[in-house]
C-alpha cells in the first residue's frame, strides 16, 4: 500500500475539526476514527469551518500518552489560518513544524491508510510522538479514490 516514502521538512499549521481520544488496542481507533468520518460527512461539518484554507482534509494524531500502543487524540478537520474563534463543538490544534517521513499511498481508500499504519507500527522508525497526520486531497472522483498521504513526525 505504500508506494513511496521521502523525508520532508514541514511547516507548522493550524487545524480545526472534531476529535476523539482513542487507542489502537483491539481495533478501537478504526471504530473511533471511522465514527469521526461518518459524523464529519453526514453533518457536512466542513461548511462549519469558516476559516479553512482549503477543502483538503487532515486527520492529526497528537497528545500521545506514550507511543502507538497508548492513548492519543485524533482530530479530523481542515487547515485554518488561525485558531482564533474555534467553533463550538470543534477542537483546534497546532501541528508543529519539523521533520516528517511522508508516505505516498496506493490502493483503495480507506483500506490503504489502515494497511500503511500497520506497516508503520511494525517498523522501528525513531518517532517524535508529537504529531502525525494523514492528508486527504479534496474532491476525489469517488471516496475510494481519495488521494491520501501519511506524515510521520521523526527525530
Describe this structure in words.
The chain is of the alpha+beta class. Helix content is 17%, strand content 38%. The chain is built from two helices and eight strands. Strands 1-6-8-7-3-4-2-5 form an eight-stranded antiparallel sheet. The longest helix has 15 residues, at 28-42. It is globular and about 40 Å long. The model has no long low-confidence stretch (mean pLDDT 94).
Topology:
Blueprint: E1 2-10, E2 13-22, H1 28-42, E3 57-62, E4 72-80, E5 91-95, E6 98-105, H2 111-121, E7 131-136, E8 148-153
The biggest sheet, with number of strands, parallel, antiparallel or mixed sense and barrel status, is:
8 strands, antiparallel
Question: What is the gyration radius calculated from CA atoms?
Answer: 15 Å
Order of helices and strands: EEHEEEEHEE
Q: What best-fitting shape do the alpha-carbon axes yield? A: globular
| Secondary-structure class | alpha+beta
Task: Give a brief rundown of this model.
This protein is α+β, with helices and mostly antiparallel strands and 155 residues long. The chain has helices spanning 28-42, 111-121; strands at residues 2-10, 13-22, 57-62, 72-80, 91-95, 98-105, 131-136, 148-153. The two termini are 24 Å apart.
Amino acid at each position: 500500500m505504500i508506494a513511496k516514502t521521502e523525508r520532508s521538512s514541514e511547516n507548522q499549521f493550524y487545524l480545526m475539526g472534531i476529535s476523539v481520544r482513542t487507542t489502537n488496542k483491539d481495533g478501537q481507533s478504526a471504530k473511533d476514527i471511522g465514527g469521526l468520518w461518518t459524523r464529519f460527512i453526514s453533518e457536512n461539518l466542513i461548511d462549519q469551518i469558516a476559516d479553512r484554507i482549503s477543502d483538503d482534509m487532515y486527520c492529526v494524531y497528537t497528545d500521545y500518552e506514550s507511543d502507538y500502543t497508548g492513548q492519543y487524540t485524533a482530530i479530523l478537520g481542515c487547515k485554518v489560518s488561525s485558531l482564533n474563534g474555534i467553533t463550538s463543538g470543534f477542537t483546534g490544534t497546532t501541528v508543529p513544524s519539523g521533520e516528517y517521513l511522508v508516505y505516498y499511498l496506493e490502493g483503495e481508500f480507506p483500506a490503504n491508510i489502515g494497511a500503511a499504519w500497520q506497516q508503520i507500527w511494525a517498523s522501528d522508525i525513531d518517532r517524535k510522538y508529537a504529531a502525525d497526520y494523514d492528508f486527504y486531497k479534496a474532491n476525489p472522483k469517488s471516496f475510494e479514490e481519495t488521494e491520501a498521504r501519511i506524515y510521520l513526525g521523526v527525530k
